[in-house]
Amino acid sequence: MNSEGSLVFSNFFDDTGTIDLRDSSSSGLTFCALLGCNGVDGVEVHLLNDAFIDNDLLLDASSGRNLIDGGDIARIGTGDAYAGLNLVNLANATFVDSQYLLVTLNAFQDVNGDIVFPSWESFFGGMQSSTPATVDMENTADVGNNLTLTTESGANDIEADDSSTETGNAQAYANIVNQLNKTLVGGGGVTLMFRVNGSWAGQLFGAPDGVALHEDDGLVYLTGNDGSLVSGPQTEVHGASSALINNNGTLSALTGENDIRDARYGEVDTGNAYVGANVVNIANANVIGRNWILAIINIFGDFNGNISFGRPDLWVGEQVDVPSRIENGSDLTYKFTVINNGDAPATNVRLKDVFDKAHLSILDSSLDFERGPSGELLWDLGTLPAGGAIEVTYRARVKDTSPGTDMTNTVRASQRETDNNPSDNTDTATVTTSGNPAPSGGPVLPGVSQASVSLERNTADFRVEGTNRTVTQELTLTSRIDRSMFGVVLLDRLYGPDGKLLRSEMWPVGELESGETVKISYDLTFGDNAPVGSYTLTTELRSSEGSVYTLPNNGKILFLPGIESPQGVFETIFEVVPDGNLLSGEVKKAVSRLARVDNAHQRKVVVEMVKPQQVAEEPAPRVEDNDSQVAAAVASDTDLPRPLYPLAASALLALVVYSIVEMRRRWFSDTDKEQEVAEVT
Q: Per-residue DSSP letters for 475-519?
């Protein structure tokens, strides 16, 4: 009644990683809905139950009992044999205003990761219930458990002149837990039992003070209670229950009992034989206003992990405040934000920043820090609770740099526990000093600005309707000045309807010559879960001398699919063709590799770079016939004779059509394979 719970049974036959049981637990219940918890009216509960359960089980796993009769050389090799039983009997179990998680697992190989239970705070922390004024229960239970477990990897017989025998391990574990005729009221309780056959050197994380693990001859167990009782209205619980449970089981695993007869040489090599049985009998159990976890786990191999109630998930972000011009003597302010996005506290949190010691001198910090062995900065931040955040700032002064010097730092957050997502524990920033000289020396290079470049988006406003979910974006960048710009990079960023950055595309243009035009075209495809609404695009240009030119909100996509809502914009893997030495009038195109993401949705990126035409200063050749006239016109960049226009146009058209067909054939031939980079002249 007003309760939720999960039963988790599983056998792992191969090596396994982290076992996360948090998704199996209940959450979000409104407790005390029936028992009031300081409510106005009392509640009267009547229970009358009878149950009879009879289980007859036979489990047999065998790779043995092999026979070779006669022969010169005889070899028998058997694989592993595993028999695993997880049996839970729930008879007359009543849950009122409660949550429960019952887990039985057998891992027949190593467990190379943590076993994660629901966080203590979320599962037990909010547990309060009223104390029933009257609890009157008459319960009778009769439980019989008769289990026979047999394992054998030996008992091999070899009749030969010479022989060799090697046998695997043979292990059998049985755990039986009876919860009979119990009434549990208020608060919370947890019982964990681990049997580890191999080695384990892990720790317990996320449990409150006073709750600890105990070890006894390979059995690791934990018991604990939490939560509280509050006074409430007059509530009465009356009941009578009877239960009869019989469990009869025979479990065997056999890899041995192999026989070789009448051979010159005989060899037997047997695998492991493991049997694991977990039996839980819950009869006439009345759980009222209480959260309850019961877990029984057998691990036949090594346990290379920890036991954790919830997990912390640290996220670190970096921001650098810089002056308008960065040079020797400039002060930079580094700001780090650390957030625990997990569901358990992070303890012994430490922040480490590896900075450019050769070009930065530390001035001060918002928190005390230490120096590491290599000069890095270390902050001890203590314990960060779930959902908690902390900021650290420090100031540094630029020194011993020349124009264009890059100063890169990497900050990393760590904690005592295993992090739920270590990929976001690190951030990196690079600051470049102003005033890069030209590669050959001389004046300061011109930067990108509204005066030096023209940047247009050919698809500024786009509406997506119906089933079409692909939008083509085209950007045209043109130089407006009479000098080259170096280290030019173009970035195009997509923001969702909520204003959050979804995707940032970057194209290293490199040198942008006077009068040069660069055209960039790429496709955006929306999937099945992307939100409906207005998406905006912002373009940014950068150059090596440090200037930045931003065109905010220069594109808009109104996404209104006629069917289900879309599915996140996905990744692209982009490959740029090396610039090389382009001749006058050459066109270069590059096609990205395909990335299979979000149910095989794909994105194509095409970059087109057009160099400005340069007229060759050569004397016009002597014209003898039409063929010579064509050659002369091409060499001198002059117009073709009028009679040859149709011939030249036809040849050009054929070349373009062939190029397009060839590129489309390569593009669609196999979307699962990498696409080749096509260079078209």
A: EEEEE-SSS-EEEEEEEEEEE-TTS-EEEEEEEEEEEE-TT-EEE
Q: Is 80 exceeded by the pLDDT of residue 40?
A: no
Amino acid in the structure at residue 30: T
What does the alpha-carbon distance between residue 287 and residue 49 come to, in Å, rounded to a whole number? 15
Coil/strand/helix, residue 170: strand
> What secondary structure letter does DSSP report for 586?
-
Domain boundaries, the chain: 4-309, 314-432, 453-614
60 or 624, greater pLDDT? 60
Q: Around Cβ 564, how many Cβ atoms within 10 Å?
A: 9
Nearest to residue 481, comparing CAs of 519, 442, 451, 520?
A: 451
453-614 maps to CATH 1.10.1040.10: no
pTM recorded for the entire structure: 0.56
Euclidean distance between CA atoms 187 and 97, whole angstroms: 11
What tokens does 411 get?
Answer: 């900050």
Q: How many residues does the chain have?
A: 681
DSSP 87-144: EEEEES-EEES-EEEEEEEEESS-B-S-EEEPPHIIIIIT-EEEPPSEEEEEEEEEEE
CATH fold match for the domains 314-432 and 453-614: yes
Q: Could you count the other beta carbons within 10 Å of the beta carbon of residue 442?
A: 8
Domain 314-432: CATH architecture, name and number where available: Sandwich (2.60)
Half-sphere exposure of 141 (CA within 13 A, CB side): 22
588 or 83, greater pLDDT:
83
Query: Residues near 116 by Cβ (< 8 Å), separated by ≥ 6?
Result: 18, 19, 20, 21, 22, 308, 309, 310, 311
Ranges 20-29, 374-383, 592-601, 662-671, most confident: 374-383
| Contact predicate 24/101, CB 8 Å | yes
List strand residue ranges (DSSP E) for 301-425, in order: 307-309, 314-321, 331-340, 346-354, 360-365, 370-371, 377-384, 389-398, 406-414
In b/e form, how buried is each residue of 607-619, taking b as 16+ CB within 10 angstroms?
A: bbbbbeeeeeeee
